[in-house]
Specification:
221 residues; alpha+beta; Jelly Rolls; 7-stranded antiparallel sheet
Length: 221
């Protein structure tokens, strides 16, 4: 019984540790330009795809950032930084961006939504730990809307999406800035999965211990 209790205790402690680690992950979206960034998204060496385009950052060597939408995209230079819009210049309601090298992510993102008619938007962030949507974010009409997205606790941002609500439209997204670009670690199992796996291993160990103590032999039939 002492060994069994020890195994179960170890499993529970390990599960609690994983739960604590997940709880320490943090993701914050705030209005304004307050994040620490070290790379600006430029409009150069652009490659166009179907409803997408990929462009450089100003790092050396350059990192590449991809933008996708449900509309054909285009862009321009805006004070040395990229301005991403729909090719028809009639406004768009959806835009997603991520590192073109999908093994990379970032911990800080500053972006500026230049609005057309949207008053509300959903902003969805995918990280190595979660997918989170900030719902009904207020958007100022016909003006700049700076936002800063920051993560901590080992959380790395993989992609960001903005969706205009109630039929609203964006004019463009400009002055994209990134910080903390780094390699995304491998997928991490959910905390509950880890706990169940550890408890399962403990149970198997307990059965093997009991059989050895009773002199039983496990046979394959």
């Amino acid at each position: 019984m002492i060994k069994t209790r020890g195994l179960l205790a170890a499993a529970l402690i390990a599960g609690a540790t994983v739960l604590s680690t997940a709880a320490n992950a943090s993701l914050v979206l705030s209005p304004g330009n307050s994040g620490t960034t070290d790379q600006n998204v430029l409009f150069q060496n652009v490659i166009y795809g179907t409803n997408s385009l990929t462009t450089d950052t100003n790092s050396n060597p350059a990192n590449r950032v991809t933008f996708t939408s449900n509309e054909t995209l285009t862009g321009a230079d805006s004070n040395g930084q990229a301005r991403i819009s729909d090719a028809a210049h009639t406004g768009f309601d959806l835009l997603t961006w991520f590192m073109a090298n999908t093994s990379l992510g970032f911990t800080t993102n500053v972006f500026n939504i230049n609005d057309k008619t949207a008053t509300l938007a959903d902003i969805t962030v995918v990280t190595n730990l979660q997918t989170k949507t900030y719902e009904d974010v207020g958007i100022n009409l016909h003006g700049n809307n700076y936002f800063t997205l920051e993560s901590g606790g080992g959380e790395i941002i993989k992609s960001v999406s903005i969706l205009a609500l109630n039929g609203g439209l964006f004019e463009d997204v400009r002055q994209e800035r990134l910080g903390g670009i780094q390699t995304i670690s491998g997928a991490v199992p959910e905390a509950s999965t880890w706990a169940m796996m550890l408890l399962g291993f403990a149970g198997v160990g307990f059965l093997a211990y009991r059989r050895r103590g009773q002199g039983q032999v496990l046979r394959l039939v």
